[in-house]
Amino acid sequence: MIETRAVTKRYGRTVAVDSVDLDVEEGDRYGFLGPNGSGKTTLVRMLLGLVYATSGEITVLGKPVPKRVAEILPEVGALVEGPAAYRHLSGRRNLALLDAAGRGGSVRTRRTRVGEALEQVGLGGVDRRPVKAYSLGMRQRLGIAAALLRKPRLLILDEPTNGLDPQGIKEIRELLIALNEGGTTVFLSSHLLAEVEQLCTRIGVVDRGRLVLEDRVDDMRAPTGRVLVDTPDAAHAVSLLDGQLEHRDGERLVIRHPDAAGLNAWLVGSGIRVSSISAERRSLEQIVLSVTGTGSDRHDGSPS
What we know:
The protein has helices at about 40-45, 70, 90-100, 105-120, 135-150, 165-180, 195-200, 215-220, 235-240, 260-270, 285-290, and strands spanning about 1-10, 15-25, 30-35, 55-60, 65, 75-80, 155-160, 185-190, 200-205, 210-215, 225-230, 245-250, 250-255, 275-280. The chain is α/β, with parallel strands linked by helices and about 300 residues long.
């Protein structure tokens, strides 16, 4: 669905995107991550033909960008750098104008498409208030509704949950999963790692313009070979572990072992009471921080 090869974007002496090879497969829910200033939005804009690459190749839906971007856009829904709208018009009127410009058709079918898009993002009951009176979260929902008008094969979103409260974030997550299950490939940039961890099936991480990691989320979060055990018999358990213990914090033990179920059976069989046990997995936050450091927008003298 999206493929880039050695894509680079320079602004004078500044390299915003540095030789990025990106692969987004059909059916992905792909999270594009990185610190502020790492080149995420620049690359997203290049995918849509809004910014031209200095060098390299970009293919979207099997066609080169920007050369054939006009053929691609009818099948792509996008929200980049916040929703655009006529602030003096209502959200419904904004979507109607956008739909008319992009698809035409009768007023009745246009009204139906607009209504369906608003319902999908939780704005079905929106009144005639102008967009300038909307909250940030409502404007963000409206931008996503605009991206859905074309029933796209590919959805490209830049920080889609910006300004939403936790319930709103959950609703948009569920919407994107449902769209994906219906056949839409989702590509989104975000800085909300916990949300991406719940939503995305694959991720790519950029740091200072370079792609430093691309993999399936499940593969990255595979068990580490350690097991977390909570037991009121911690001291007794430690005496039996024969060097397998890596760390103890009160009743919490971190034990080197490949199989949580097998370890649990052995502990219980040895007379150890186990309150809880689970295989240790790295969080997405830990994974991203391990390849990006502290972030590229710090200017406080802290070590990078």
